[in-house]
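hey
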């Protein structure tokens, strides 16, 4: 059984079409079609069937696709043992993730990795929570976040490591009547103009909890992805917002006040495909990201 056939079936299931697999793996659709025909001859049963204009896996195809992670993870474990025999992990590790999570963790992790033989590549992704898991098809480590659980939506089949838990505070201009409070309750802020995030982005979950606690809707004046732009609008008095405590630099432009009586914190999590997670270099980078997260929490607690 050729491991390349198993990986092709897994990639086809993840990406939905041979064209998408070809684009992601820098091969031609015709070459992949030939490889798929060879896989079906070797298996002796159909592995795919037509579905609209594309293909979907048959039951046998699903069975083999499920086995791809087991086989590639086993090979990665063997390679990891060889790295340990050599004395230190080597290779390139690609990291992708939400910009604020990378801001919080990457500088500290890179400092810890400075003496290693691991090369790091980084790509920032500003996505809805449920889209981060799909990025693990391309990156060794995806830094995602969730306000509902330690495993972001869609990441159930991936290896997940909690890197830190970051409170989300209410950002207000310094001259706002609520700016001097030690903490704020939901009904203190329900009548304010809010600068929110797009629908399905995790921070909006907290606003929904505020609405539920107060029994009324709040006013989302704007929906914006970028935290730096949100912070600038809060500083200029255009509304209030939720911003992450560890990665927001307030200077004198606005203040952060903790929110009480509703859960207002996010898990920042590293996601990896099982086979990628077994690589010694990926394990090392994940450990150092977690160490950076622990140091960050310790500094803020003190």
């Amino acid at each position: 059984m050729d491991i390349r056939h198993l990986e092709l079936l897994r990639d086809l299931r993840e990406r939905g079409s041979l064209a998408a697999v070809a684009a992601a793996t820098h091969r031609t659709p015709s070459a992949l079609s030939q490889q798929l025909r060879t896989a079906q001859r070797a298996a002796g049963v159909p592995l795919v069937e037509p579905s609209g204009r594309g293909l979907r896996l048959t039951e046998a195809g699903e069975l083999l696709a499920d086995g791809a992670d087991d086989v590639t993870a086993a090979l990665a474990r063997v390679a990891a043992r060889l790295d340990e025999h050599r004395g230190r992990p080597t290779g390139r590790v690609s990291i992708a993730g939400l910009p604020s999570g990378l801001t919080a963790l990457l500088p500290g992790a890179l400092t810890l990795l400075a003496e290693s033989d691991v090369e790091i590549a980084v790509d920032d992704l500003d996505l809805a929570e449920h889209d981060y898991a799909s990025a693990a098809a391309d990156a060794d480590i995806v830094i995602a976040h969730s306000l509902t659980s330690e495993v972001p939506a869609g990441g159930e089949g991936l290896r997940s490591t909690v890197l830190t838990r970051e409170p989300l505070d209410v950002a207000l201009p310094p001259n706002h009547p609520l700016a001097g409070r030690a903490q704020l309750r939901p009904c203190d802020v329900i009548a304010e103009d809010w600068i929110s995030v797009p629908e399905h982005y995790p921070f909006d979950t907290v606003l929904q909890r505020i609405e539920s606690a107060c029994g009324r809707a709040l006013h989302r004046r704007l929906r914006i992805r970028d935290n730096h732009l949100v912070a600038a609008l809060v500083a200029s008095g255009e509304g209030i917002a939720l911003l992450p405590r560890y990665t927001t630099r307030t200077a004198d432009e606005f203040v952060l006040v903790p929110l009480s009586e509703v859960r207002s914190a996010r898990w920042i999590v590293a996601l990896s495909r099982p086979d990628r997670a077994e690589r010694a270099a990926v394990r090392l980078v994940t450990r150092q990201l977690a160490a950076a997260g622990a140091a960050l929490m310790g500094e803020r607690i003190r």
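The longest strand covers residues 159-172. The domain at 3-70 is CATH 1.10.10.10 (Arc Repressor Mutant, subunit A).
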